[in-house]
Amino acid sequence: MKSLRVELGERSYDIFLEAGILGHAGELLDLDRRVLIVTDTGVPADYAQTLADASLEPCVVTIREGEGSKNFDTYMTLLDAMTERGFTRHDCVAAVGGGVCGDLAGFAAATYMRGIDFYNIPTTVLSQVDSSIGGKTAVDFHGYKNIVGAFWQPKRVLADPEALATLPPRQIANGLAEAVKMAATSDAALFRLIEEADDPLACLPEIIERSLRIKKAVVEADEREGGLRKILNFGHTLGHAIESAESPRLLHGECVALGMLPMMAETPRGRMRAVLEKLGLPTEYHGTPEAIASALTHDKKAAADGIDAVFVDAIGEVRVEKTPISALMERFGTVYGGTR
User: Fold this and answer.
1) What pLDDT was estimated at residue 97?
2) d(C-alpha 274, C-alpha 278), whole Å
3) What are phi and psi of 206, to 5 degrees?
4) Are 55 and 193 spatial neighbours (Cβ–Cβ below 8 Å)?
5) Higher-confidence residue: 312 or 338?
């Protein structure tokens, strides 16, 4: 069984990466208590049931699939379930699903009785390579993504590649956008692996593990995004703005793909465009720039003198630079000249 340890002092935790590991959850997680299991309608029901069968007092809450569920109404549903079942500080929350489940369940765990244990069992490529570790939890508010949230590290993460078997190709590509993001900023060899592979899906376990190692190293160096961790926002500044305008028509990873291209120098942009097309991710955008500019002004990283934007001038080389929204929009217009 492969394991990685995220070293954060008293908040340290292990990530286990192994095919079939979900079936061993009872051996790896402390489930001898009340367990709120948060899953969604897009996840096979037997995944959550496997965890429920291993728990002393399980409470399964199934939310509607998609970003539209990441709101205060759903968050309140989770709090209601815990208070009605008499959850205490000694009980826990477990997410069985993708990034939306993880963000919601983690935020509920972070805030219920000022914080209870949280386990993350990611079942999408996107959550396995990125969102399941690092401790960022949040809900969307008034159309702005992740604007209300907290840092709350999981106690343990179980990543089971077998859980990806039922995903449609679009969802796999959606997750691979985050792996490409990390490769572009931090691992030129991983980028070449994806770029040159005849079938990137055949390399999926290696891509997941190497992506997790990148994220682990960044989180250990900068847990609360005071410096280095900002590089993980590559593609997300414009990507979140696009997502605010286009969700649910476009998925998160698709918006990140579109958000990366304007933030690159010309040579790496050409390589990135080819990789995105190979994976089936979008490389053209025809929305209205006014909606993008409006969303940027509400970006939680925005300040009076601009946004800490992340740029890639060469694959594997990254810089963070305070950039006015007008300059970001100029880059956006340069790449998506047909925007109307």
Assistant:
1) 97
2) 6
3) -70, -40
4) no
5) 312
Q: In the annotation, is 240 catalytic?
A: yes
Of 70, 155, 178, 254, which one is the catalytic site residue? 178
Residue 328 burial (CB < 10 Å; 0-12/13-18/19+)? buried
Contact between 38 and 94 under an 8 Å Cβ cutoff? The reply is yes
Domain residue ranges of the chain, discontinuous segments joined by +: 2-164, 169-335
Give catalytic status of residue 229 as yes or no: yes
Tens-place pLDDT, residues 66-105: 889 999 999 999 999 999 999 999 999 999 999 999 999 9
Distance CA 296, CA 278 (A): 29
> Topology of 169-335 in CATH?
Dehydroquinate synthase-like, alpha domain (1.20.1090)
Type of residue at 107:
F
**Nearest by Cα to 104 from 64, 66, 70, 141:** 70
Asked about 233 being catalytic, the answer comes back as: yes
Buried b (16+ CB within 10 A) or exposed e, 152-173: bbbbbbbbbbebbeebeeebbb
Identify the active-site residue in 146, 181, 233, 273. Answer: 233
Domain 2-164: CATH class, spelled out = alpha beta
pLDDT tens across 205-241, in order? 999 999 999 999 999 999 998 888 899 999 999 999 9
